[in-house]
Amino acid sequence: MHASDLPPIPDAVTGEPRPPRAPRIHQGKEQTPQYRQPRNPPPLPSGHGPMLEWIQPSIRLQYGAAAAMAGILVVFAIVRTGGFEWLRWWWYWALLIVGSWIMFRATRNHWTAGGATWVQWRSSWVDTYRLTRIRFSADGTNRVLRLRDAHGNEIHSFKINQLQGNPDLWDLVYNGILHSVASGNCDIDAKTRQILQIPYELGPRPTGKRADRRRLW
After folding, report:
1. Considering Cα of 195, then 166, then 121, then 201, what sign does the dihedral take?
2. What is the mean pLDDT of the chain?
3. In whole angstroms, what is the distance from residue 95 CA to residue 25 CA?
4. Contact predicate 149/127, CB 8 Å
5. 93 and 132 share one domain
6. What is the CA 103 to chain-centroid distance, rounded?
7. What is the pLDDT of residues 142-193, one digit of tens each?
8. What is the mean pLDDT of residues 3-32?
9. Domain range spanning residue 172?
10. What's the rounded Cα separation, in Å, for the pair 183 and 122?
């Protein structure tokens, strides 16, 4: 594949033509809800076209995560005390409430959105067609992408399972990644190319190990 073979850049307003299906690590099937608008989304990028796709946990999922946290804490207390003595500990009830609330709020923060030429994670966003650095990395147990664009915007830890959870959203982002790499102005290493299945003939050769060891983040 060469730059001339790439799918066209979609219109910034309509998102047409939509890019073809992109290769994925995470095979999620979540779709942008058509029956409701997002709840309290963060400010979207100004002047870069409308939001076309988005992912936001449902209220049911948030309550489920909170209940799971409470269940873990209850099981832990039963195992440690050998029974239900912990029911008399007011401070443990406070821990249950606080822990469940934190999990409820944390799940709510999993906001992901994208337009024809941009993608947003929580309140951070990048121009997908002017990326200057792309790295694949691990953040705890999560596999993530670290993105930077020519405007100086960064997404430091973009969870791949959430980004690729909505296939239509990932298609838009991936097309931007391909065009950014093909431009020759994007720093992407061999490992990230392999993970994202980006053809090696697209753009300049990957940076070497010595360049990768520089602390750029």
Report:
1. positive
2. 84
3. 37
4. yes
5. no
6. 18
7. 899 999 999 999 999 898 988 998 999 999 999 999 999 999 999 999 999 9
8. 90
9. 3-17+114-212
10. 27
Burial of 27 from C-beta contacts in 10 A (0-12 / 13-18 / 19+): exposed
11 and 118 together in one domain: yes
Question: Where among 108, 143, 167 does a domain terminate?
Answer: 108
Tell whether 121 and 170 lie within a shared domain: yes
150 and 78 belong to one structural domain:
no
Spatial strand order in the sheet of 187-188: 154-159, 142-149, 131-139, 187-188
Record the pTM. 0.76
Q: How confident is the model at residue 212 (pLDDT cuts 50, 70, 90)?
A: very low
Based on the domain organization, do 137 and 186 belong to the same domain?
Answer: yes
Number of domains in the chain: 2
Percent of the chain's residues with pLDDT above 90: 47
Mean pLDDT of 41-62: 82
> Same domain for 68 and 147?
no
Same domain, 192 and 146: yes
Q: Are strands 112-114 and 154-159 parallel, antiparallel or unpaired?
A: unpaired
